[in-house]
């Protein structure tokens, strides 16, 4: 369809669910770690609980930064987060 010399293009609004669609996945957030020989947890960023209560963003292993608020049990686990965790030898939650 042309109007005033311009071509109108209907945008493709159908979204594909793939690894790059981080809004449709549950993510793994590294909140802290315990160094060998210590009982103290060293925080590495905001916790998910803190993010939900205070509205502060958290960062997932895949790099996604967001303010948590949804039930992660309703979504499949992010494949990139799983890959990063497994490469580091960490146990992946729910697997």
SSE blueprint:
Layout: E1 2-3, E2 6-7, E3 32-33, E4 42-43, H1 48-54, E5 58-59, E6 65-66, H2 79-87
Antiparallel strand pairs: 1-2, 3-4, 5-6
Overall spatial form: globular
Low-confidence stretches: 7-20
The SSE string, one letter per element, is EEEEHEEH
Query: How helical, in percent, are the residues?
Result: 10-25%
Q: Compute the gyration radius: what is it?
A: 19 Å
What is the distance, rounded to the nearest whole angstrom, between the alpha carbons of the first and last residues? 51 Å
Query: Please, what is the average pLDDT?
Result: 77
Structural class assignment: alpha+beta
Strand order of the largest sheet: 1-2
Number of domains: 1
> What composes the largest sheet?
2 strands, antiparallel
Give structural notes:
The protein is α+β, with helices and mostly antiparallel strands and 95 residues long. The chain has one domain (18-87). Helix content is 17%, strand content 13%. The protein has helices at 48-54, 79-87, and strands spanning 2-3, 6-7, 32-33, 42-43, 58-59, 65-66. The strands form 3 sheets. The chain has a two-stranded antiparallel sheet. The longest helix is centred in the C-terminal third of the chain and has 9 residues, at 79-87. The N and C termini lie far apart (51 Å). Residues 7-20 have low confidence and may be disordered.
């Amino acid at each position: 369809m042309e109007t005033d010399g311009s071509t109108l293009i209907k945008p493709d609004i159908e979204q594909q669910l793939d690894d790059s669609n981080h809004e449709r996945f549950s993510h793994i957030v590294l909140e802290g770690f315990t160094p060998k020989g210590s009982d103290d947890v060293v925080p590495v960023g905001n916790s998910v609980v803190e993010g939900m209560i205070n509205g502060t963003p958290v960062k997932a292993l895949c790099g996604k930064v967001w303010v948590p608020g949804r039930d992660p049990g309703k979504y499949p686990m992010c494949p990139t987060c799983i890959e990063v965790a497994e490469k580091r030898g960490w146990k992946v939650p729910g697997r």
